[in-house]
Amino acid sequence: MRTIKYIAVHCTASHQSQTIESLRQEFLRKGWVNPGYHYAVAPDGKITQLLDEDKVSNGVKGFNSVSINVAYIGGIDRMGKPADNRTDAQKASLRTLLSMLHKKYPVAVIQGHRDFSTDLNHDGRITSNEYVKACPCFDAKTEYANI
């Protein structure tokens, strides 16, 4: 059994019209044996498990072996810019899924992909100018702090 230290929240960095099948195909095109996420949440709130939790996904380089990766479909606007475009159904399903995962892995820290960035100025905070990625396009640490 893997030791889970993080539950990483992602966006797919796609339009909300992306399908689960096209997401799977994207991972295959990248040459990945395993997908980038354990779970994906569609705009209608449907949660799809893409990979068993005991397997390592490709969500956050350097942290995959100790993470469960969860994504919502979306994260970019019509211009291709980062945007928190989660639907109400996605917000509710993400909270439900993260609550369930945190009960299963109670010591795991819930945070966004961007929160794995390096604290470049060593002030103890990772700020927007230090983000390697905008993903998941909202402050997951704050939003899910009460889970």
TrEMBL record:
CDD domains attached to this UniProt entry: PGRP
GO BP terms, alphabetized: peptidoglycan catabolic process
MF terms in GO: N-acetylmuramoyl-L-alanine amidase activity
InterPro entries to which the protein is assigned, alphabetical: Amidase/PGRP_sf, Amidase_domain, EF_Hand_1_Ca_BS
Residue ranges occupied by any N-acetylmuramoyl-L-alanine amidase domain in the UniProt entry: 2-116
Matching Gene3D superfamilies: Peptidoglycan recognition protein-like
Superkingdom of this protein's organism: Bacteria
Protein name: N-acetylmuramoyl-L-alanine amidase
